[in-house]
From TrEMBL:
<dbReference type="InterPro" id="IPR045851">
    <property type="entry name" value="AMP-bd_C_sf"/>
</dbReference>
<protein>
    <submittedName>
        <fullName>Benzoate-CoA ligase family protein</fullName>
    </submittedName>
</protein>
<dbReference type="GO" id="GO:0005524">
    <property type="term" value="F:ATP binding"/>
</dbReference>
<dbReference type="GO" id="GO:0016878">
    <property type="term" value="F:acid-thiol ligase activity"/>
</dbReference>
<dbReference type="InterPro" id="IPR000873">
    <property type="entry name" value="AMP-dep_synth/lig_dom"/>
</dbReference>
<dbReference type="InterPro" id="IPR011957">
    <property type="entry name" value="Benz_CoA_lig"/>
</dbReference>
<keyword id="KW-0436">Ligase</keyword>
<dbReference type="Pfam" id="PF00501">
    <property type="entry name" value="AMP-binding"/>
</dbReference>
<dbReference type="Pfam" id="PF13193">
    <property type="entry name" value="AMP-binding_C"/>
</dbReference>
<feature type="domain" description="AMP-dependent synthetase/ligase">
    <location>
        <begin position="26"/>
        <end position="382"/>
    </location>
</feature>
<dbReference type="GO" id="GO:0044550">
    <property type="term" value="P:secondary metabolite biosynthetic process"/>
</dbReference>
<dbReference type="InterPro" id="IPR025110">
    <property type="entry name" value="AMP-bd_C"/>
</dbReference>
<feature type="domain" description="AMP-binding enzyme C-terminal">
    <location>
        <begin position="432"/>
        <end position="510"/>
    </location>
</feature>
<dbReference type="GO" id="GO:0016405">
    <property type="term" value="F:CoA-ligase activity"/>
</dbReference>
Length: 522
């Protein structure tokens, strides 16, 4: 049971804290038969989820996984994700969720970088992992919903509930989340046990006001920091019900889920909202009488989408800014307090500041680089001291986003401070896309920048210099796009390709992407 006798700290949390126990046990004591999860397999009550988590903790011991060792989660959104994720934390093992859209090479690199000793894979993703599994005979592979390895359900059935959680400290590392880097290689952000409860209190229960009567659905998957909060941390902290969508969020399927399950809180991203509102089967407000709150994050929410959503459903979309490093949203609008085109104001419990290139605070109305201070910051990147020092500067975390703040504290997005793109809420390194294009025999070199589509959402645009003899045209554009898709996660391919004679460069030969962006904007 919860340790109520241990010493408490200034934020009210005990020093002896296991995040899985903290989120699950109160719900099991209050309402074990209440539905915690609705997924593609039906409903899962809190009591059943609790049993699965405790059995998973025992299963880790049977697999030979020891405390503080890493396990990778390459899982689609079903009850298996929280079962494994929370089971690991219960056992003192460190779960590391992975983007299910990555390539085999991405997975291979992360496995080696993390030093993980086990990998949990949804059956639909087994083909991507098969070459890696063949190369790593000492890593234990477990299959969810079909697959060639140890069956997860059989593993749980053969395990005994581990009733006592690992004796963890609030500041112990609980889980990692990989985030993209400017070189294209991801970075493992390490988060502690206390952060799960704190982010729930500050944003999920505080700003968003999620309560036990809510039914929550998130477009972002649980491997994202945004989705992890939306679909796991916040519903469990509130004793609410979450609807998990197993695969990609298609408008028709989401519409049906919202109607059937009477969803009250919808967490989305601008790309989804644009596609959903344009879909002929998009419901009207009479079909969604329970919907009381919609939030958006991952990329800036265009004004016209905010207005179109309100006009259709009579509900505002609450925009917000978060990051993997901070675990979730720390700048947000509020219900009844929305300014279209603004990201919002700082969430209670956090502080922000805007600084110039010399780290001097800028005046209201001036653009500066956004830095944030708060209790949910990661403690650093795994095996990457240089990037850790650059991002985590004392108590302040560098976001890489440029913002303008007015005298009332409202923040408006002004673009990335570096060359990284955010496509559908996911960071994309231009270097990675450029390297994929440059590997084609017709391409001499390439540069990639962000451009906006008809919905004012950012997508990659490539500028390509061809080898002599290559013939530019629509056929080659299609060929290069297919080439990139075959080598990258699908969301990273360039939506537009322009053929140019040369790329703008510095005297030392570095590509000047800012000039391409400037020339494009006129």
């Amino acid at each position: 049971m919860l340790n109520t006798a241990s010493a408490h700290t200034a934020d009210g949390l005990p020093e002896a804290l296991n995040a899985a126990q903290d989120l699950l046990e109160p719900n099991v004591l209050r309402h074990p038969d209440k539905v915690a999860i609705v997924d593609s397999r039906g409903s899962c009550a809190y009591g059943i989820l609790f049993d699965r988590v405790q059995r998973m903790a025992d299963a880790f011991a049977r697999l030979g996984v020891r405390r503080d060792q890493r396990v990778l989660l390459s899982l689609l959104d079903t009850r298996d994700f929280p079962s494994v994720f929370l089971g690991a934390i219960w056992a003192g093992v460190i779960p590391v969720p992975l983007n299910t859209l990555l390539t085999t090479d991405d997975y291979r690199w992360i496995l080696h970088n993390s030093g993980a000793v086990a990998v949990f894979v949804s059956g639909d993703l087994a083909e991507k992992w098969a070459p890696v599994a063949a190369e790593e005979p000492h890593v234990r592979f477990v299959s969810s919903e079909g697959g060639p390895w140890i069956d997860l359900e059989a593993l749980l059935a053969g395990a005994e509930p581990q009733h006592a959680p690992a004796r963890t400290h609030r500041d112990d590392v609980a889980f990692w989340l990989y985030t993209s880097g400017s070189t294209g290689r991801p970075k493992g952000a390490m988060h502690i046990h206390a952060s799960m409860r704190l982010v729930a209190n500050l944003y999920g229960l505080g700003t968003a006001g999620i309560g036990p009567d809510d039914v929550v659905l998130s477009i972002a998957k649980q491997f994202f920091a945004y989705g992890l909060g939306n679909s796991l941390i916040f519903p469990l902290a509130a004793g609410a019900t979450v609807v998990l969508v197993r695969e990609r969020a298609f408008p028709a399927e989401i519409s049906a889920a919202l109607i059937v399950h009477r969803v009250s809180v919808l967490f989305g991203v601008p790309t989804f909202f644009a596609n959903w509102l344009a879909h002929p089967g998009c419901p009207d407000r009479e079909q969604l009488p329970s919907l009381r709150l919609a939030t958006s994050a991952g990329e800036a929410l265009p004004v016209h989408l905010c207005n179109a959503f309100r006009d259709r459903f009579g509900v505002d979309v609450i925009d917000g800014l978060g990051s993997t490093e901070m675990l979730h949203i720390f700048v947000s609008q509020r219900n009844g307090e929305v300014r279209a085109g603004c990201t919002g104001r700082v969430v209670d419990g956090y502080e922000v500041r805007l600084v110039d290139d010399q780290e001097r605070t800028v005046e209201p109305g001036e653009m500066g680089n956004l830095q944030v201070k708060g209790p949910t910051a990661a403690i650093g990147y795994w095996r990457n001291r240089q990037k850790s020092v650059g991002t985590f500067r004392g108590l302040w975390t560098v976001t890489g986003d440029n913002y303008v703040m007015d005298a009332e504290g409202w923040l408006t997005y002004a673009g990335r401070a570096d060359d990284m793109l955010k496509v559908g809420g996911i960071y994309v390194s231009p270097i990675e896309v450029e390297e994929a294009l440059a590997s084609h025999p017709d391409v001499l070199e390439a540069a990639v920048v962000g451009d906006v589509d008809g919905d004012d959402l950012v997508k990659p645009r490539a500028y390509v210099v061809l080898h002599d003899g290559a013939v530019p045209g629509e056929a080659l554009i299609a060929t290069l796009q297919a080439w990139a898709k075959a080598r990258l996660a699908p969301f990273k391919y360039p939506r537009w390709i322009d053929f140019v004679d040369e790329l703008p460069k510095t005297a030392t030969g570095k590509i000047q992407r800012f000039r391409l962006r400037r020339d494009r904007s006129g």
